Amino acid sequence: MAVAMVSVHASPLGPLGEGENGGMNLAIRRVCEQLAHQGITTDVFTRLDRPDLPLEQLIATGSRLMRLPVGPPEPVPKHDLVPLLPQLANRLNEHARSERRRYRLIHAHYWLSGLVAERLAPDWRVPWVQSFHTLAGTKADAGLPADPERARAETVLARGADRIIASSRAEKTDIARWTAIHPDRICVVPLGVDLADYAPRPTAQYRNRLQLDEGKRVIAYAGRLERLKGLDLLLEAFAVLRATGRHDDDVVLVAGGDSHDGTSQSNHPAGEVGRLRALADDLGVAPAVRFLGPLPPVEVADLFSLADVVVVPSRTESFGLVALEALAAGTPVVTGTVGGLRDIVEDGVSGYLVAERTPAAFAAGIAAVLDDRSMAERMSMEGRHRAEHFTWGRAARRLALVYDRVTSSGGDHESPCGEPAPGL
What we know:
Oligomer: single chain
CATH class of the largest domain: Alpha Beta
Distance between the termini: 31 Å
CATH superfamily of the largest domain: Glycogen Phosphorylase B
Number of strands: 14
Strand content: 15-25%
Shape: globular
Helix content: 40-55%
Order of helices and strands: EHEEEHEHEHHEHEHEHEHHEHEHEHEHHH
CATH topology of the largest domain: Rossmann fold
Largest sheet: 8 strands, mixed
CATH architecture of the largest domain: 3-Layer(aba) Sandwich
Radius of gyration: 22 Å
Mean pLDDT: 93
């Protein structure tokens, strides 16, 4: 039987870099493709958010995307989706009955989807696996606005689900901390990267397209423009670099657009991109900062190959997919010691993990990469080697083990995540 995946607001076929679309969308798509290769069929249910999109679309042979017409056929802020969730659960149930479709289990992505799975799993009498991707408590801890409603819901969902999927050891720790569930019910399934898609490549043509002089060194950022992602810290660090007089020819290239969170939290009439442009102007670095807008994955890969360093200044990351993609492109990464980034970047080997979240500390890390080319070349090689440990095929195989365990009644010698217990 198939696995029913619920992803209310994040379509696996959504254009990456636009609105709320990001790593979660990509992860669902790639995992479904790899599960299909392993003979595991998936139906992914999301909300129809554009009137011109088909209600059903193939993700891969053995994986379908179903868009449910609930609410207006347009993007809706995530919190405004909560009142629509009962109707969405009913529509999903009706769809399954219309096809006489029975599911092996439900895998819900994000807390909104968990509220749908919570309604369906008891009626269907199937297990329920939950991925949060981010947590309200972790975001509040990082200085972002508190969300008590979401935090309460996440605790209830974690206690009700049969298994919780975390993408890193740090996320597992956070889930156990904020929901007070036993860590044994939380299974770590690291995400992957398309090594071929992000392989280093010639960049002269892309450099010419961007009209960048050959001597200019590139500091790159990719991600949604919102407070969580911390681009303001990179701009402040860049101002520190420029003040030394040794980085006058360096540029910052920013790939990404405003999200709903970015727009609502910016307090600027032009949204988060407007706030960041104004900040760059105030810091005196605006002429050397270029906002490229949302880019398709193939162009993000070009950007990472072109860059001398990729900076991931996020306040928190459950995993850190951008950092992994940069390493796959052979580009050193400078990031903070937060969340899953500590599992991806090896400090001093494939980049730098900056302990202090200050412009001066990040500027020092960026300068260390830019000013020592031999070391940067070693980091490039080590980063590519590190990325080879993270593949979507491995992620899907690990997830399949969890599915098998949650739908079986194996002996006590097995762990709740489908692997032999330590020492056996």
